[in-house]
Each structure stands twice: as structure tokens, then as C-alpha cells.
Amino acid sequence: MQLHDFHFELPDELIARYPTEQRSASRLLRLNGTTGEVNHSNFFQLVDFLEPNDLLVFNNTRVLPARLFGKKSSGGQVEILIERVESDLEAIAHVRANRSPKPGARLVLEDGSELEVLSKDGALYELKLLTNDWHGVMQAVGHMPLPPYIDREDELSDKERYQTVYSKVEGAVAAPTAGLHFDDELLDKIADKGVDTAFVTLHVGAGTFSPVRVENILEHKMHSEWYELSPEVCDKVKSARQKGGRVIAVGTTSVRCLESASSQGSIQAGSGETDIFIYPGYEFQSVDALITNFHLPESTLMMLVSAFASRKHIMNAYNEAVAEQYRFFSYGDSMFITEPFKGQHPEINSLVGDT
């Protein structure tokens, strides 16, 4: 299977630069991954498509104001995107400048905080603050790290809208965007129907936007992200299935967390790094249905949803979404894959043949 197998044409005007006025007012495309049937509705109607024994699994990570601006000691401008905070003083980050700073270089941020470049490993820099701490710096002068395709400056409203209403654990540099459609009113209606909820944590990294640069997708190296899943969540997953309910992952990050915790065949509590790469042919262990946004062409997220509902059904659904003028990507509309694809993925033979 080749990278171009996951390509689709998207008119620029369908990229959502701003969210809907109300979170749950976005549109919802329902796809049956078994039959390929597509239906259209609104996200606030989601409760009508849930059953009392279902379990919704959310990612409660909270996005850091991780984009910072400053200058080199020479006066040149720099832009820093924190990938991961290692301690109060040290962080791993992407740094953009006319000339890449070398280890030992000093940088000064907008609030006057100074930092030193400790090392560089590939595209990532290890930075150490010499004054202040990362939390204080980001709260003072940090900007919300909107994705590259939202080609505008971040605004005050993004500090709230680029977070889920249930975000809790700081550490992400990108939002788990499928959760952006939920508001408190909808969550209350879901609870009133008897649908259970659970929360995992996966800190989304900037690598989620990294393009796949190889034609044979098996040669792609996935980025690593930190996750945590509690014994309580494991018990809820097992209980839902015993009752005949579905485990519904809200977002691909919840999928990555649940499936990473299920890599030994049964779901296990724990925390650590995951670089799980899910593409057609993957056998899902803990996820029965998926709520997700519309993803970039040729992205690893397109491969993940194609593994869940088959590439054929996903591509047909995306083409219909384009024809129906759905809004795409982080601030766009949503898809509910109500059942997974059953049977052999027809593209697997070509995948094996290309290795």
C-alpha cells in the first residue's frame, strides 16, 4: 500500500479556520464501517445514536500555550514550539530561525526570559531556561499552537475553543480535536441516557502534523507520545463489553491510548511512551466505534481511520463530505464510525507485496 492511496482532493475553502459559534452545532457524518452506508446529521444529535450500555472514552489532555517568540543574541527572530516539558527548566522544542541556533546559543523571549540551547537531535532542540520556569513563561507570553493549516494568528478566543471542556492534564501541543464538539449540555444529555464515560490521557505532540515522507507507508517512523490509562478505565472497558455495549473512542488519540494499552491482547492499566502506527490490516483490540474529525490527505490519521472502516469506505465518505461542503480538520465537522469494517482489507495484498 502506497502513500498516494490515502490522497483526496480538498478545496481550500473547506478548511475550517474558525470553530462554529457553538461547539455541538457542527455537522456529523455517520459511517457504518461494515456496510459503507453514510448518513448526515448534526453533532448535538449524537445522543440519539448512543445506547445506555455504551462507553465513551475521552482524552483529557490540556493544550499548553506552547508557541513562543523571541530573539537570538545576534538579534535574529526565533519561533519556538514546545514539544514536551521535561522539568521546570528544561524542554524539548522545535525552533525556527533564519539560521539554526547551535548548542550554547542564548535566546531571549518576549518577556525577557533567557534560555540556552543545550543540544540538537534531528529537528528537535533541548532548551534550558536560565530565568523563570516554563509554566510561568507560557502563561505570560505563550500563544496557542494552532495547526499549520489554520493560517492565521491565534486569537484570545482560541485559548478556550482550542481546548475540550473536560481538558484537565496539561501537556499537549495540539488538541484532541474530536472532543471539541462536546459541550456541557450535550455531556449532561449523554449521562442522562445512561451512557458511561471514561477519561484517558495522551499528550498530543507536534509530530501529529508531520507529513509522511515515504511512498511505502511501512517505512514511516511514527512519533512518540506519552499516555496514561487507569485501572478504573480498564474496568469500564471490560464492563461495557460484558454488557453488550460499545467502547466508543472519542478521537484518534483515545484510540492510540486504548490500543497501546491492549497490545498484549487484553487492556492493561499503565503509562509510558507509545509510537503505535495503525494502518489497514490492524486488528483492533479495545475500540468498537470511533468519533473523529476529518483528517489531512496522506496522513497517519487517514491510515488509522482506514484501518477501522476500510480505505474504500473512508474514501467514499470523504468524497461525499467534500460534495456536501463539510468543514475539514481541527475546527471542522465530525464523523461517527458506528461499526468497524469486518473482513479482509482488500488492499492488504498490495501492502504485503510492497514490503
UniProtKB/TrEMBL annotation:
EC number: 2.4.99.17
SUPFAM superfamilies attached to this UniProt entry: QueA-like
UniProt entry tagged with the keyword Kinase: no
Catalytic reaction(s) noted: 7-aminomethyl-7-carbaguanosine(34) in tRNA + S-adenosyl-L-methionine = epoxyqueuosine(34) in tRNA + adenine + L-methionine + 2 H(+)
Entry-linked InterPro entries: QueA, QueA_dom1, QueA_dom2, QueA_sf
NCBIfam families: PRK00147.1, queA
Residues in coiled coil: none
Assembly and oligomerization: Monomer.
Entry's transmembrane regions: none
Domain of life, source organism: Bacteria
Alphabetized UniProt keyword annotations: Cytoplasm, Queuosine biosynthesis, S-adenosyl-L-methionine, Transferase
Subcellular location: Cytoplasm
Entry protein name: S-adenosylmethionine:tRNA ribosyltransferase-isomerase
Pfam families: Queuosine_synth
Pathway(s) of this molecule: tRNA modification; tRNA-queuosine biosynthesis
Family label: Belongs to the QueA family.
Protein function: Transfers and isomerizes the ribose moiety from AdoMet to the 7-aminomethyl group of 7-deazaguanine (preQ1-tRNA) to give epoxyqueuosine (oQ-tRNA).
Organism: Kangiella marina
